[in-house]
Amino acid sequence: MKNDILKVRNIGISAHIDSGKTTLTERILYYTKRIHTIHDVKGKDGVGATMDSMELEKERGITITSAATFCEWQNHEINIIDTPGHVDFTIEVERSLRVLDSAVLVLCSVGGVQSQSITVDQQMKRYKVPCIAFVNKCDRSGANPFRVIRQLKEKLGHNAVTMQIPIGLEADFEGVADIVAMKAVYFDGEKGDDIRVEDIPESILPEALEKREELIDAASMFSDELMEAALEDSVTEEMLMSAIRKGTLTRALTPVFIGSAYKNKGVQPLLDGITNLMPCPSEVENRALDLDNNESELILSSEPKKPTVALAFKLEDGQYGQLTYIRVYQGNLAKGDTVINVRTGKKVKIGRLVRMHANQMEDIGKIPSGYIGALFGVDCASGDTFVAPGIRLTMTSMYVPEPVISLAIVPKDNKAEISMSRALNRFCKEDPTFKVFVSGETGDTIISGMGELHLEV
Predict the structure, then answer these.
(1) DSSP collapsed to 3 states, the chain
(2) What is the pTM of this model?
(3) How confident is the model at residue 150, as a pLDDT?
């Protein structure tokens, strides 16, 4: 584990239903050499995508829990939090956004900006998450990435800038033209492994130059150096990228990449975009509330020598007991440390630390600040903060939406009642939007949650 915080990216891939998010994640894992073959989401090969590790998800072809997984690209470590895209699971999305430093917004080049994209986008605004967009499925008929970019501006109010233009569209989609470097990029080989860089074809050169002008105009707002260079016509790639990065980090620009994950095109440039444009943990301001000081806000620093502050953002029942996903914001968390759970005031000794890859794990000795890992056998609820003894800080409590749908449930017999209450208890602990109560009028057990799909799960 290389500990260079500047080379760490914590990203979420958040998207509209079926815009191809899980397929994109799968390709990212493949190109970063984390998995060696590619499986499709609704597994025709009987395997299913690597991120959807729950059986239920394989059967339905949707993503439910945000599995945190880790990969490396160009010496950068990328932690991907796979967030659910259906409205019913908004608490999961909220929770993963607290933990991310940045996000990739995946949009379908045919469907464009849909209702859920708007919900997710409001959540990103609330947590000030910088993002880049990826317009996927450019190989489908009716694909029109420029319409999607226009919708990003009009419907979501993003200052969206085109980083690439497509070379051919729909069935003729061949590759992308990178308008920062002014090169055409093609993805050869059965799985798009061999990247071939050539000059931009004559037919789209005028369009590429025009889009490049627009990009420089938008980016020069963030760099005087670039503005001067633009007037003298001496813009370099580095200058342009650093200006775009400045704009992206303050959420004032949203760079847009295009491709087709299913056809293995455009994924590697997106990875370059993530490493070049997205913030590292020390560039993001994380605030905590100081309980000794009337909940006043404190800014955490990612110094490893400071006292530890970490947030448990997700619980799962693994085969070895409760698995707690955790993000360290300050200091580091090592095996054998004693930390305090701020909510309960109890001391917790850290036993086994692991780093997750969808559903396999590797053991590690410590989690430094800015990193994401998981703990075993620690009793806590999601949203709990762990701190070093001697300080009382809590990461801001998360905003929990009111449940929108309720159902009455009745167990078959006495034995079923015991196991039902056990299961419901676990759901309540894992998911704050899930509520259970006994109706005073009918004596039925009532459960309420964020939608039919949510309750069915």
Answers:
(1) CCCCHHHEEEEEEEECCCCCHHHHHHHHHHHCCCCCCCCCCCCCCCCCCCCCCCHHHHHHCCCCCCCEEEEEECCEEEEEEECCCCHHHHHHHHHHHHHCCEEEEEEECCCECCHHHHHHHHHHHHCCCCEEEEEECCCCCCCCHHHHHHHHHHHHCCCEEECEEEECCHHHCCEEEECCCCEEEEEECCCCCEEEEECCCHHHHHHHHHHHHHHHHHHHHHCHHHHHHHHHCCCCHHHHHHHHHHHHHCCCCEEEEECECCCCECHHHHHHHHHHHCCCHHHCCEEEEEHHHCCEEEEECCCCCCCCEEEEEEEEEECCEEEEEEEEEECEEECCCEEEECCCCCEEECCCEEEEECCEEEEECEEECCCEEEEECCCCCCCCEEECCCCCEEECCCCCCCCCEEEEECCCCHHHHHHHHHHHHHHHHHCCCCEEEECCCCCCEEEEECCHHHHHC
(2) 0.76
(3) 92
